[in-house]
Amino acid sequence: MRARTGDDPVRAHADAAHALTLARRASTDLALGFVLAACGDTLAGLGDAAGESLLAEARSVLARCPDPGVVGRYLARAESRHGLTGATASRPPALTEQLTERELAVLRHLPTTMSLRDIASELYVSLNTVKTHCRAIYRKLGVGDRKAAVQAARDLSLL
Length: 159
What we know:
Blueprint: H1 2-5, H2 9-26, H3 29-45, H4 50-62, H5 69-81, H6 101-109, H7 116-123, H8 127-141, H9 146-155
């Protein structure tokens, strides 16, 4: 949503209201929780107090889900990004599968500007090995890219 609204709070409000209307009308709790979290994250990022209340509502909606999965982790990172703690934010979920020693070694290099090839050279392994470790790291952290992996690792105190 942020890419669409830029830094325009009026447009962000209008887009959030439209998305929430549609989500409340026909969504599952998981989908509604995601829309609430995404809208809340965007509005809180623009300094709008409504963002915090949307994040709190997302937390209560996702509490009804047996396994919020990646949506729950996204919400936890959004709450962490905006400094929400206590009753509003919960601790980030623990890893269900621990990272191996070599995955942790690769993870420690991800916040740097090093390319995967440079990381491979530094660790004396092949590029394909680093790519395999990155895929495992992303899967275990429930993220899709390097930047999100670094944020999730920081939330879990792995970095």
